[in-house]
Amino acid sequence: MALWNAVASRLARHRSWTAGVGSSRAMSSWWHSVEPAPKDPILGVTEAFLADPSPDKVNVGVGAYRDDNGKPVVLECVREAERRIAGSMNMEYLPMGGSVKMVEETLKLAYGDNSEFIKDKRVAAVQALSGTGACRLFAEFQKRFRPESQIYIPVPTWSNHHNIWRDAQVPQRTYHYYHAESRGLDFASLMDDVKNAPSGSFFLLHACAHNPTGVDPSEEQWREISQQFKAKGHFALFDMAYQGFASGDPERDAKSIRIFLEDGHSIGIAQSYAKNMGLYGQRVGCLSVLCEDEKQAVAVKSQLQMIARPMYSNPPVHGALIVSTILGDPELKQLWLKEVKGMADRIIGMRTALRENLENLGSSLSWKHITEQIGMFCYSGMTPEQVDRLTKEFHIYMTRNGRISMAGVTTGNVRYLANAIHVVTEST
Amino acid sequence: MASDSVFAAVVRAPEDPILGVTVAYNKDTSPNKLNLGVGAYRTEEGKPLVLNVVRRAEQILVNDESRVKEYLGITGLADFNKLSAKLILGADSPAIQDNRVTTVQCLSGTGSLRVGAEFLARHYHEHTIYIPNPTWGNHPKIFNLAGLSVKTYRYYDPATKGLDFQGLLEDLGAAPSGAIVLLHACAHNPTGVDPTLEQWEQIRQLIRSKQLLPFFDSAYQGFASGSLDADAESVRMFVADGGECLAAQSYAKNMGLYGERVGALSIVCKAADVASRVESQLKLVIRPMYSNPPIHGASIVAAILKDSEMYREWTVELKAMADRILSMRQQLFEALSARGTPGDWSHIIKQIGMFTFTGLNSEQVAFMTKEYHIYMTSDGRISMAGLSSRTVPHLADAIHAAVTCST
Fold first, then answer.
1. Distance, in angstroms, between B294 CA and closest chain A CA?
2. Which of A279, A328, A355, B259 has minimal Cβ neighbours within 10 Å of its Cβ?
3. Among residues A216, A222, A275, A367, which one is catalytic?
4. Locate the Aminotransferase class I/classII large domain: which residues (chain A) (predicted)?
């Protein structure tokens, strides 16, 4: 009886809530003036692709690796690492700075296995939410400790770079990078911009496999850039999202960074394992800042943690465990290096195939940039209108800046793709 | 010039008051040390716990060769989002049925609060949030950095070690119309003091009459009373009246997924098209922060929530954790009574959830750390989850000494 009374009175109370004083049925929404946001230009492409029912559809939009069957790949070394991890670890919070082991291995990749900077403990480093998270931590750090500074961003760049520094409220400037006519590097203008920027400016550099153009400075050009940076006392933040993916050799792909380190720069590096370890959705990366000494590195790291704490407290453990398991085991690391080279080689093979197909179709345009550019992306030079035609008429999906994700090209679709590109560009 | 760091002037930040406790604990070499700092569940043996059902879900994921690690969409795993909304709002929630709820996967409770706060700072007309005094140490930082200004409302009454209900009503009553109000859905952190259902109803009426915007932090659903539904009553009460609110959910404690960073932000809106537009704006907050959320933890949660047998197993394991904590409360209370420790310690068994607000001051806490190697936050909060039958006597001794040796 007591139980029934309790239930009945509870129900009565519940009914009274919906009709009681202060019921907000009559109010309009707080959000009636919220505008629908524009779709993300990159991620929106995949959304559109998924919605397309055509059997011929091709997704060369987002930069996620596909094998020659167009399927996403989980690396063998990752599968093995996961097998070892499952069931054996706990899921406790990582420290705010993330997995110490994972960060250690990650720094070796960027700074070199025997880096004096690592030995001298001069690198402030924290695990970050892939490349995006690493860039955002740096941008917030820059805003907090160098509030008068701006960030120089190349034209073009990954579109989210602009969002990141804007949300961190760091003013942006641009520097010349891509040369449309040659579909290569506008080196002279780049150097002019570096020279003309106020001394001590902050620059964002793509370490290798520039996104979206695939155009990288040569080694000689990197040396000149480094010298000019020295002369002007500029700060270099390297965004390295494709180490290993560009040439197939991680050491080679870190060359730009090593040159700057040799020349004495104190740099920052945002690293990502999304592509080179295929850990996309795990969100694993690292932000590091090279400091004058260990004391300063400790200070900087502590401040980076203060930025992470009110954003997400501490980073996710699973992806970090995969990385440290692989890189900490010599056999697994070797397997990884082999698999990365395999991915890079397939992409290089597709570049060759796409260019050859276009040339064989009798295109009057030059397509040599396809094989001269490097990394996951090819900046085709197509206009937004031509891209729209590719999508509408051929169900081929890419970002409207004409960027082709070569990872989405396969022996099965390269001819179809070449033909479509030829058709929409042959009138130019 | 190139070797001068541009960050030479950066000074070392103070340790995070909560996470810094574990750092200090780890450095201590005493065999008697006890970590009652961060709210992470421990077994009777003092070990972290991975739930059996979580291990099962993990194995399923690992063995499924077809699983890939592609990017999730910006809003995360769709299944996870739907199931999370149902978990907090109730499976039969009319708001869900009307498509008026947008739910986005975020990085645990912290990430959900931050994304929600950033959205409010951009799209809501009032930029002040009222938080209870006291609250989790990270709350004010989250809201400040998101661009909101933070005010407090009275909550804890040190005299009764219970709720300062009059003070709460007065302070929220004096808030400007439209202000945001942070509410702990259950198991208030750090005090363990929750309003009764009757008090929640009064709070709801006041909030709705002043058109204040409720923002729930639900980090302990199921952990407080042992019942998932009971622990969500406060939130459901507000949704039932047809009004709007925000809710941040965490699976860190109730599924033991701490380091996987799994959580969800739900915004309950008046209409479906509003919810859709709100979701599109949430994406713009998330993309420049971390692009898309981590897949692993959310996959585990979804696997468990969608399978009725695993869900049931989860509720059993969850209740066991909640029961062990209740038992620790009882044991500590009895141990202090047995020692004749001066003061009224009944709040230990009246408060609810993972934490007890002991009422000890920072000097007493420092004493306990120094002399008894007890690690806790300086506000006197202890995590009951860090206790075991074996260690309760040591803690009781320490409290007794701290209270009786006060200079």
1. 5
2. A328
3. A275
4. 56-421
Nearest to B5 among A29, A279, A291 (CB): A291
- Cβ contacts of residue B103 below 8 Å, gap of 6+? B75, B81, B82, B84, B85, B264, B265, B266, B267
ipTM surpasses cut 0.95:
no
Q: Where are the alpha helices (DSSP H) in A329-383?
A: 330-360, 369-372
Confidence of residue A1 (pLDDT cuts 50, 70, 90): very low
Q: CB-CB: which of B125, B259, B274 is closest to A29?
A: B274
> Tens digits of per-residue pLDDT, A284-327?
999 999 999 999 999 999 999 999 999 999 999 999 999 999 99
The first and second tokens of residue B245, run together, are 């609110």
Could you please report the per-residue DSSP string of A3-16? HHHHHHHHHHHHHH
With H, G, I as helix, E, B as strand and everything else as coil, classify residue A58: strand
CA–CA dist B284, B123 (Å, integer): 12
Q: Chain centroid to CA A67: how far?
A: 20
Q: Is residue B311 classed as helix, strand or coil in its secondary structure?
A: helix
Q: Which residues contact B392 (CB under 8 A, 6 or more apart)?
A: B328, B331, B332, B335
Identify any residues that bridge with B383 across adjacent strands, giving them in sequence order: B355
- Residue B105: phi, psi to the nearest 5? -70, 135
Does the beta-carbon distance from A292 to B4 stay under 8 Å?
Answer: yes
Rg (CA), chain B: 22
Token pair listed for A383 = 């206009």
Sign of CA dihedral A31, A33, A34, A39: positive
- Pick the closest to residue B135 from B341, B377, B397, B401 (CA basis): B377
Return the sign of the alpha-carbon dihedral for residues A132, A133, A138, A139: positive
Q: Looking at the DSSP assignment, which residues form a beta bridge with residue A205?
A: A238
Query: What is the separation of C-alpha A131 from the centre of its chain, rounded to a whole number of angstroms?
Result: 5
Q: Residue A344: which of A233, A242, A240 has the closest Cα?
A: A242
- Whether A239 is a known active-site residue: answer yes
Let me know if B161 is exposed, middle or buried by CB neighbors in 10 A (0-12, 13-18, 19+).
buried
Neighbour tally for A220: CB within 10 Å: 9
Is A266 near chain B, with CB under 8 Å? yes
Picking from B41, B85, B82, B44, the residue whose alpha carbon sits closest to that of residue B258 is B41
